[in-house]
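Cast an eye over this sequence plus tokens and explain the fold to me:
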Amino acid sequence: MKRLEGRVALVTGGVGGIGTAVVKDFLAEGAKVIIADIKQDAVDEAVATYKAEGFSVAGAAASITDIDALQAAVDAGVAELGPVDIVVANANTGGATTTLDKTSPERFRQDVADNLAGQYNTVRVVIEGMKAKKHGAIVIVGSVNGLATFGQPAYSVAKAGLVSLARTMATEYGAHNIRANIVCPGTVQTP
């Protein structure tokens, strides 16, 4: 039996570099996967490809910054595959500026919305189901930018916030047998 046989994983940013690798690893371990991403056509294509290969997948095309759309998309995936056991909050955008002086207030708000609030939304749409089941696993994909200063200040602030968010989730949801962790990769060359 494969290690994750019968488990359902939600992966945001599921058709991008890191997300695609995570989806493939889950499928190889026997999990069913809800592939979430903002790119509708790419989600549809990925779902069709994986289903043709015999995998159990569902698509959830939505922006992580729009909690209502994300909830509806994930609910449709849950209706098809079952309740989520594992969530990988991976979707994000890269920082566009190099210094605070060059960062506009709009860019700052957008980076925080995309890279911090979006991860909160991702967990928010599945946490009640995990609490009801009394088990689950949350993995937040952060960045080394959240641990040190490498430029891209708004992006870095958001990623630092994810460290605290993961700690808070681990503390609050641990009582429900739900683990929460963050991984902080360095630069990854993706498409």
Observations:
- The radius of gyration is 16 Å.
